[in-house]
Amino acid sequence: MQFKHFLQFKDFSREEYEYLFERTRWIKREFKQYRQYWPLADRTLAMIFDKNSTRTRLSFEAGMHQLGGAAIYLSTRDTQLGRGEPVEDAARVISRMVDLIMIRTYEHDTIKRFAEHSRVPVINGLTDEYHPCQIMSDIFTYIEYRGSIAGKTVAWIGDSNNMCNTWLQAAEIFDFKVHVSTPPGYDIHPEQIGLNSTAHYEKFANPRKAVIGADLVTTDVWTSMGFEAETEQRKNDFAAFCVNAEMMSLAKKDVIFMHCLPAHRGEEVSAEVLDGPQSVVWDEAENRLHTQKALMEYLLLGKLNSGS
């Protein structure tokens, strides 16, 4: 049986994402109208967590329930994976008992090894290198507010982390530009994430120059999970990279602001911006639910006719 995994953003084509966004619109509309849609009845999602989570766990668990299926939470602290069971062995066993697997872990190599030995589709809920489900939600949210993202400019301010990496992959697929501004020592590594050229990104030492002409400004926490020992050093290194009202004023007049959450007001973003009229972070978070429902439907059922 042929099936697909979703481990990084470039695993899907633009055509596939456009289909997923069409499905997301329909699924979201049905949900808002309280119309039952259970295409995944009797199907089971295993959710394996190596990192703490709020939005990822809730969106996948609620999403699977709303599609008529069931979701099982597995923490590596409570399973044999946390006691040294090889990833390959866990994949062989777990994938015989469920229909779909989502993993949120540290090293991307872990999820790749798991997928190589899985009998069912595997979804990357987050790794240190990529966060494809979040960027899928972000782009869908942008389209809801402003239409096509093709030809637009996204300003990434902060760390060259999994979010930044995934935005860069998405830019090549959707044909938009990313202005990347990171402090010295936190630069991007395009060769490691498989970028084909420099045509879809530009680097800026000064974050204020990066936001000039931006249609979307986005950032993330300065210290991601797994890097807590660097917290104090990062606060110093990123001190000039807080997205505040003055910085946002340099972007386009109709600019919107995104953040994958959780956010630290006064660090990577000011409270004025996060809670202000340019911010779409709450819609962005909600759309994780609906885009991931479309994703799970697609991985298990393939392409459906519109409205099915």
In words, what does this structure look like?
This protein has eleven helices and nine strands. It is α/β, with parallel strands linked by helices and 308 residues long. It has a five-stranded parallel sheet. α1 (14-32) packs across α11 (281-301), α2 packs across α11 (281-301) and α3 (87-94) packs across α4 (108-116). The longest helix is centred in the C-terminal third of the chain and has 21 residues, at 281-301.
Radius of gyration: 19 Å
Distance between the terminal alpha carbons, to the nearest Å?
Answer: 23 Å
**Count of DSSP E strands?**
9
Oligomer: single chain
Tell me the strand order in the biggest sheet. 7-6-5-8-9
Top keywords for this entry?
single chain; alpha/beta; five-stranded parallel β-sheet; four-stranded parallel β-sheet; 11 helices; 14% strand
